[in-house]
Amino acid sequence: MKVFFNQLFDYNFYCNKKIIEASATLDVMPEKSVALFSEILNMHHIYNEHIAKREPQYKMGQLHEVNTWGDIHYENQRNSFDITSEAEDFDKRVDYENSEDRLLIHTMQDMLFHIINESTHYRALIDVDFVANGLESLRTNYITYKH
Question: Between vectors from CA 126 to CA 114 and to CA 61, what angle results, nearest 5°?
């Protein structure tokens, strides 16, 4: 399971870095894409913190300046790799309160996969927004990455 998640987080790292690098070259980043990438960063951070039993510093809906994305992304990835490296039981159940103060219980495996899956979803929306704004497609799907 560690190898599987390390491969997925390598993919996640590569694709997010690609968006960060593309954004740095733009005079103006599309507003919707800023909100979507901020959600990737927030969600990744929040789930890492739930797994680690720490209080999240970010919340969903919080916007981040483009020039901070690289540092937040790196910290999220580092924390995820720490979690996967130290995990002995990916079926371990993790309880946490969501943003609506509801108690939820999921396995660590499900939470880690959610980070990857939700990030992929948001990246696809960013790609659509880029194209709608006349920017080049980012092509961050898994098969393109594997080539």
Answer: 65
Partners of 107 in beta bridges:
93
Q: Which helix or strand (DSSP H or E) is residue 21 part of?
A: helix 2-24
Which of 78, 104, 76, 105 minimizes the C-alpha distance to 92?
105
Is the pTM above the cut of 0.85?
yes
Q: What is the pLDDT of residues 42-98, one digit of tens each?
A: 999 999 999 999 999 999 999 999 999 999 999 999 999 999 999 999 999 999 988
Pick the closest to residue 120 from 7, 26, 37, 35 (CA basis): 37
User: Tokens 């970010």 label which residue?
Assistant: 58
Q: Please, which residues have CB within 8 angstroms of residue 40's CB and are 6 or more apart in sequence?
A: 16, 118, 119, 122, 123
